Amino acid sequence: MSSFSSTTNTPTKNTTPTTPPFNLPTKHPVPSDIQISKDLTSLGLPPISSIASSLGLTPSEFIPWGPHKGKVTLSPLTRLSSTPHGNYVVVTGINPTPLGEGKSTTTIGLAQALGARLGKKCVACIRQPSQGPTFGVKGGAAGGGYSQVLPMEEFNLHLTGDIHAVGAANNLLAAALETRMYHEACQSDEALFRRIVGKNGFNRVMIRRLEKLGIEKRNPEEFTDEEKGRFARLDIDPSTITWNRVLDVCDRHLRSVSVGLGVNETVKNPAGGDRIQHDRTTGFDITVASEVMAVLGLTSDLTDMRERLGRMVVGYSKSGLTVTADDLGCGGAMTVLMKDAVMPTLMQTAERTPVMVHAGPFANIATGNSSVVADKIALKLVGEEGFVVTEAGFGADIGAEKFCDIKCRASGLKPKVAVIVATIRALKMHGGGPQVKAGVTLARVYTEEDVGLVRKGCSNLVRHIENMKKFGVQVVVAVNRFKTDTPLEIEEVVKIAESNGAYKAVMCNHWAEGGAGAEDLARAVVDAAKVVKEEDFKYLYDEGLTIKEKIDVICKEIYRAKEVTYTALALEQIATYETSGFEKFPICMAKTQYSFSCDPAAKGAPVDFEVKIREVRACAGAGFLFPIAGDIMTVPGLPTRPGFYDVDIDEDGEVVGLF
Amino acid sequence: MSSFSSTTNTPTKNTTPTTPPFNLPTKHPVPSDIQISKDLTSLGLPPISSIASSLGLTPSEFIPWGPHKGKVTLSPLTRLSSTPHGNYVVVTGINPTPLGEGKSTTTIGLAQALGARLGKKCVACIRQPSQGPTFGVKGGAAGGGYSQVLPMEEFNLHLTGDIHAVGAANNLLAAALETRMYHEACQSDEALFRRIVGKNGFNRVMIRRLEKLGIEKRNPEEFTDEEKGRFARLDIDPSTITWNRVLDVCDRHLRSVSVGLGVNETVKNPAGGDRIQHDRTTGFDITVASEVMAVLGLTSDLTDMRERLGRMVVGYSKSGLTVTADDLGCGGAMTVLMKDAVMPTLMQTAERTPVMVHAGPFANIATGNSSVVADKIALKLVGEEGFVVTEAGFGADIGAEKFCDIKCRASGLKPKVAVIVATIRALKMHGGGPQVKAGVTLARVYTEEDVGLVRKGCSNLVRHIENMKKFGVQVVVAVNRFKTDTPLEIEEVVKIAESNGAYKAVMCNHWAEGGAGAEDLARAVVDAAKVVKEEDFKYLYDEGLTIKEKIDVICKEIYRAKEVTYTALALEQIATYETSGFEKFPICMAKTQYSFSCDPAAKGAPVDFEVKIREVRACAGAGFLFPIAGDIMTVPGLPTRPGFYDVDIDEDGEVVGLF
């Protein structure tokens, strides 16, 4: 077992380096993440354009945004279309504590080990973090310690603006929807038709609506009154609206709001008398929960994104027709707002490994996975012998299942290895240890040796190993070491994991040591990838099953529920989707990440529980259905003492207090 | 008078070119703005880094964001602190029609003429446009025709993310405020104090609050109960809150909203019984109306911005104390969110003149001027013989008055020349022509010769000339030519302007011809700058006057009101400000742009009217007071057929339909 390093690590092998050799100067005790980021950046990071070129990107395929980050165009996908691609590795985890078990850190540490230590061509692919958690409780998401993306303050702030673009597109559609309802409440069919069509006749997006309605006429003069009304009046039933506004901030008071209370937002009362308020109760979500973000995660290119954004459903008309972004004239403008966002952002790790940061869909109502586009480009760039390490959010029951059944189904890519990250702390919690809570001192059991508790908690890990093997991938367990973990505790996990289906289980210490601390893990991943073929990969379910059958498979095969029940509302929604073209969509479960079951307190490997589907929603643009099991919160709150309290600039204008 | 050009313009003089000579290939009829942008971009724009270096920026002072735009650091301000600066020219206008009279286009055209035609070192400084109008009625704001900023689609979309940064900072503060009120409603002083101070004691931002409260203790253990409560309980009076959330979209239903309607946003009822909702009626503004944007427009550097953001007032405590961003622990985090936004963005015109795009404060409740920082850097870079052309929003009664009295007071810069843009169309409207409305065909009087109507309407122009001369600058009138204007009409304006104080009045045709069409204007500006000294510049009023005296001077000297009246609320607010340290602030009037008076229908040069001040608000961070005269709308609405309907990508993934 390796000990803490306070000296420079020397790479053990560097056959085909993707970047110049670099000896990571680690310090003990490990400084704060932002301090490490500053220290390493001030040593002189290689310009990001040199990282891009060593990765094989041509100058026209990389657009630098300052010295440390830049956009990768989608052209390598066509240029390298006939090149074989690399080994695809997904990093996932056991059900975590609220403190997180270091999946991002392991993703980065593993990539550093593969790249800087083993000399493999390697790219890490991760999500862009929301600013909500960054300034709230959780802090940044660039990894941590000596396994992080640099500079972490750029990673954690605006980056290249993708989340802002998602917000702008989402909110343009919300404004279009709300204002359209208002104009429809004020105007006759004739007036609406005349104003919308205007002098220039039907434009691109209007023709899409005409096609949807089956109206073949293209000369507005020839329209009957009925056709004018059908075209111009969307006649939205406000009770069916599922499109929320978004903000990338933890503002809990926006979860439920009433809009349209202004003196000018009134309409004529159809019953006569005073004008009535054109108000409505609705809500905001955090930006990363927008379907636009889910689309960004799953799209293949700009043209595909145009189609997906246009067919997003915001609600239904009173006669039951879908109302889409294109019906509101918005699909094109949203795509234009997202045209830079479709390109992944390239950064680098502490050991100069390339990192693609792209998309950040919320893991509880969307896929929780970074983008298809980034993984695809990266796999082409690393080539046949190379590795792409991508991260799936939440635990393997949610994030990795969605990775395989939704993301890989969309991309056609086949992973070979799943790395399951576990910590002694989380295993002890699953073994029956007391509650772990952010901001509260850990109970002593978590900092003192207790092999029995660890053993008991391994029930959680073992089930995740079994689950991932159902997808035909090799499983490597990474025990992410904390300094209070003892050799006996770690040995116990390794033994149990390896005797229960893991190809290998290894301790890693990349937080303190960088890639050197994940070298064993990297070797295990390289070896595991040799004993598996891409063709071994399989989805959990066939998309041709009925919606209820698909939900059933996930709940029983992955969560191990005894039964799945549905509210009347959910059944009604499923019945609608079965006949509206959404029946082939894969399922994106919205469920707690803290347990296999729907009860966050049920630790370990619960059985015999029920999954109650409260509601089922459709993301018609992203292309999945999301059944909601339990309470799902789409705007986190701020604590009494939020993280932003410490964030400031110092006397030299440098950022301090990001963590 | 020059005619339309359909051939290549050849520069007449090019003594000290800032960019390589370039012959602008103009077409007739003039294509759409986006078509021109595409045509000229596809001819091969010089990389923006070459524009930066020809401007004298060192490589470390310029951060490219892709090939066509980049950030200029603030270091030229120190590096060139002892270098003499250039000639400062402000472009303003008469009271416009709702269609706009081409101030931005004239700013860009004049810069093209000074740079590419007369060979002067020249920079244009303009605002970043809001996405609201871009997708609503107005369209883009990059100038137009052959006088525009390229590429216009980058200019009009996210640019380098500054507006998004303003939104993120604004909304972080809103969330902090709302959540703090909620936590204060749920927790005792002791609990609040314990949680806020935490284990690590008082941090930077908390010490600011201790200093404000006059508490000298720094050890939390020594705090009395009274001191704990005073520190931790802001005790905000909800009725005093002036801080709104923002979105950069025309979403009128957000003007007035009720927040906190969720099932979890409840607090214990102090009177016993069921929990009560923690809701509140509030509103959204468009992002550019945020005080954060006003701060960006007036700040001098990152450190100054930190102080300004921290002292922004969001409301008052029940005992009448100001509650600031720093009291909420937010000033530092907001600054960090704004750290890139403080740097101007460099782009180029159709004729390769450098353009700095920076800040875009709303002209009706803020200054409506681009940033102090950009103008300062540009003036240093062009040097003593060079020119900086900056634009002031709205008509000269608002935009240029604020430019002189607020922006120049903040920067210490002294303009030499004011260019007043007029059109025959707007002058005819002031002369009594029928109403001009967006989307409605112009009445015939606007497209046929009517010298008498033009003459009558010149009353508006003449008063703006008189007004600008009060500031000690030279006035040049630019008659922005439309193709229906006749030589006699233009001659009439030139004659009246020159016999009423203008140094010179010239016709210009830069929309159709680029810089060649503004060459006469450029010569007039160069000549005017020679006959004036910076020391001639003077403010309209002394900051030491009382608030009412300052308002009085503006209303009587500039608008020519007979009297100024105040509501009881306004008088009360003024009384508060007179004693709270805000009495020295300059005045930023919120008034219609369509008339000298508060009645948008009062055209020409109205007299004997009353200005009624409904309310007076303070922007303590930006550093001005804004008296509100009339209805001010801070979220525009969308029309039935908004601009976004036409925006899309074509088969090649290129943006179409932006105008």
Describe, in plain words, how this protein is organized in 3D.
The structure is a homodimer of 659-residue chains. With 659 residues, the first copy, chain A, is α/β, with parallel strands linked by helices. Chain A folds into three domains: 33-161 and 340-535, P-loop containing nucleotide triphosphate hydrolases (Rossmann fold, 3-Layer(aba) Sandwich); 163-337, 2-Layer Sandwich (Domain 2, N(10)-formyltetrahydrofolate synthetase), CATH 3.30.1510.10; 547-628, Formyltetrahydrofolate synthetase, domain 3 (Roll), CATH 3.10.410.10. In chain A, the strands form eight sheets. In chain A, strands 1, 2, 3, 4, 5, 6, 15, 16, 17, 18, 19 and 20 form a twelve-stranded mixed β-sheet that branches. A two-stranded parallel ribbon of chain A has the order 7-12. In chain A, β23 (615-619) and β24 form a beta hairpin. In chain A, α4 (103-117) packs across α20, α7 (162-186) runs antiparallel to α13 (331-337) and α17 packs parallel to α18. Chains A and B meet through α7, α8, α9, β8 and α12 of A and α7, α8, α9, β8 and α12 of B. Chains A, B: Residues 1-31 are annotated as: Disordered. Chains A, B: This is formate--tetrahydrofolate ligase. Chains A, B: It comes from Triparma columacea.
Reconstruct the topology from this structure.
Two copies of one chain form a homodimer.
Chain A: H1 33-42, H2 48-54, E1 62-64, E2 70-72, H3 75-79, E3 87-93, H4 103-117, E4 122-126, H5 131-135, E5 143-144, E6 147-150, H6 152-156, H7 162-186, H8 189-197, H9 204-213, H10 225-232, E7 245-247, E8 257-259, E9 266-267, E10 276-277, E11 280-282, E12 284-286, H11 291-298, H12 302-311, E13 313-316, E14 322-324, H13 331-337, E15 345-349, E16 354-357, H14 372-382, E17 387-391, H15 396-411, E18 417-422, H16 424-431, H17 451-469, E19 474-480, H18 487-498, E20 504-508, H19 510-513, H20 519-530, H21 547-559, E21 563-566, H22 568-578, E22 610-613, E23 615-619, E24 624-628, E25 648-649, E26 655-656
Parallel strand pairs in A: 3-17, 3-18, 4-16, 4-17, 7-12, 18-19, 19-20, 21-22
Antiparallel strand pairs in A: 1-2, 2-15, 5-6, 6-15, 8-11, 9-10, 13-14, 15-16, 23-24, 25-26
Helix pairs in contact in A: 4-20, 7-13, 8-10, 12-13, 16-17, 17-18
InterPro entries (chains A, B): Formate_THF_ligase, Formate_THF_ligase_CS, P-loop_NTPase
GO molecular function, one term (chains A, B): formate-tetrahydrofolate ligase activity
Pathway (chains A, B): One-carbon metabolism; tetrahydrofolate interconversion
